[in-house]
Specification:
Layout lengths: L4 E8 L1 H15 L2 E2 L9 E5 L7 E5 L5 E8 L2 H10 L3 E5 L3 E4 L5 E6 L10 E3 L2 E12 L4 H12 L3 E3 L5 E4 L8 E6 L10 E7 L4 H10 L3 E5 L3 E5 L5 E5 L11
Parallel strand pairs: 1-4, 5-8, 10-13, 14-17
Antiparallel strand pairs: 1-5, 2-3, 3-4, 6-7, 7-8, 9-10, 10-14, 11-12, 12-13, 15-16, 16-17
Length: 249
């Protein structure tokens, strides 16, 4: 198996880093690790149970999401990613890459994480950050899908709408990947990403909770609600089951 674990990184500008970190710590129900890095720019969001799969970094002038893929052999998997169309940005003990569509991902050594955290109770429901949605400019989904499906070796299937393709994660993997092809009117020229949370039937309850903590509503979608966190990063609350990740019948 090429990818043994996934970590989503929230890259947060310095002025909003503290507020956004506290927001995500609260909504995920855990704690924040001690800061690390040369400038103490990194921290991990530690879940109440299971292994960590969300982290924050103080970086840049606009919020974004990037993905760490944990692998057995970083150098080998980096070479394989390049052969599949990725570009190398940095080689060290980890490797920073850009996908064919320009999305930033890092290959990092396997640290032994294997236990997916349980959903976090919210009122009478539960919620879990469980998906990274890759937002692909119009016309670019086929090429980006070829890369991700070949690199991860996860099978692809059509999502809940024709413009969405889901990569089925292995059992126990914390984050599912979805490719969402944007409309022709969207100005983005490279692949970006946002987080999706599975809330089951408690979407509105979770939305109200998040707004009370500092999020803002953007718009309802087709089976999801779009919000922005205190850093201004968009994310989605979906009606998918927080345990299975699937759309409830």
């Amino acid at each position: 198996m090429a990818v043994v674990w996934t970590t989503a990184f929230l890259d947060l500008p310095a002025p909003v880093h503290a507020a956004a970190t506290e927001f995500w710590r609260t909504v995920t129900g855990g704690t924040v690790s001690p800061s690390r890095g040369e400038d103490e720019q990194f921290a991990t969001l530690l879940p109440p149970d299971g292994d960590a799969y969300l982290a924050v970094q103080r970086l840049g002038d606009a919020p974004r999401v990037h993905l760490d893929l944990h692998v057995d052999d970083v150098a080998h998997e980096a070479d394989r990613a390049v052969a599949l169309g990725a570009d190398v940005v940095l080689r060290a003990d980890h490797v920073v890459l850009r996908s064919p569509g320009g999305f930033v991902l890092c290959l990092v050594p396997d640290r032994g994480e294997r236990t997916r955290p349980a959903p976090v109770p919210v009122g009478h429901g539960a919620v879990l950050v469980d998906q990274v949605s890759l937002d692909v400019p119009a016309g670019g989904r086929a090429g980006e899908l070829d890369f991700w499906s070949a690199f991860t070796r996860w099978p692809a299937r059509t999502g809940s709408r024709p413009e969405m393709t889901v990569l089925e994660r292995p059992a126990g993997m914390p984050l599912r990947l979805m490719l969402h092809e944007l409309g022709e009117d969207d100005p983005r020229e490279v692949v970006t990403a946002h987080l999706d949370l599975a809330c089951g039937p408690a979407v509105e309850q979770v939305a109200a909770h998040h707004v009370a903590l500092g999020a803002s509503r953007v718009a309802p979608g087709h089976g999801w609600t779009v919000l922005r966190d205190p850093a201004g990063a968009a994310y989605c609350l979906t009606g998918r089951d927080p345990v299975t990740g699937l759309v409830r019948p």
